[in-house]
């Protein structure tokens, strides 16, 4: 029997997306956003939802660009801090000793130490309740060579991303491979 929890933001897993922007003063800033994910294949696009009160909201609107950095589990403390502190009050890069890297494609920074980066040009926004969903066209994905496998593909075991559980307010890592996608279900064809 299933137990009702009512309308809540329970989706498993929530990605831990680190959104990079420049403020009005040109100061690099990052924030943690769990409300997001891939939203289109053509053009390749990612969506992140932010409240208007967030410092990054105005930055994305003004610069029409943002980045999404994917932290490894080694940086869970820093990523959590990015969701706690506001760029209005703190220099998050200085506080964490992480490196802001200027994107060469969009007007936004990314976190140099994080293994995966999506550089995005703002395509459109959608107003949804208390959030605005920013849909960005992914102009490039940069991945550290150290997390590629012998075939040159990203290796999730080396990237070591983590997910957010909004019910428990905890972060979780990923485990073993369960099955090969687009293959495991073929027995039902």
TrEMBL record:
InterPro entries: Flavin_Rdtase-like_dom (IPR002563), Flavoredoxin (IPR052174), Split_barrel_FMN-bd (IPR012349). The keyword Flavoprotein applies. Pfam families: Flavin_Reduct. Keywords: Flavoprotein. Residues 9-164 form the Flavin reductase like domain. GO terms for molecular function: FMN binding. It comes from the Archaea. Its cofactor is FMN. Belongs to the flavoredoxin family. This is Flavoredoxin. It comes from Methanoculleus taiwanensis.
């Amino acid at each position: 029997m299933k137990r009702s929890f009512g309308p809540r933001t329970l989706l498993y897993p929530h990605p831990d997306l680190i959104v990079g922007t420049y403020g009005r003063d040109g100061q690099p800033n990052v924030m943690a956003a769990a409300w997001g994910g891939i939203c289109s294949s053509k053009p390749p696009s990612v969506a992140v939802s932010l409240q208007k009160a967030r410092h990054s909201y105005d930055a994305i609107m003004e610069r029409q660009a943002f980045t999404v950095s994917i932290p490894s589990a080694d940086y869970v403390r820093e990523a959590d801090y990015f969701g706690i502190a506001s760029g209005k009050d703190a220099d998050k890069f200085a506080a964490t000793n992480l490196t802001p890297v200027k994107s060469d494609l969009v007007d936004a920074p990314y976190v140099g130490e994080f293994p995966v980066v999506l550089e995005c040009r703002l395509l459109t926004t959608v107003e949804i309740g208390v959030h605005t969903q920013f849909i960005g066209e992914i102009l490039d994905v940069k991945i550290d060579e150290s997390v590629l496998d012998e075939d040159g593909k990203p290796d999730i075991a080396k990237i070591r991303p983590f997910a957010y559980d909004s019910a428990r307010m905890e972060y979780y890592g990923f485990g073993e491979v369960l099955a090969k996608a687009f293959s495991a279900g073929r027995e039902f064809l």
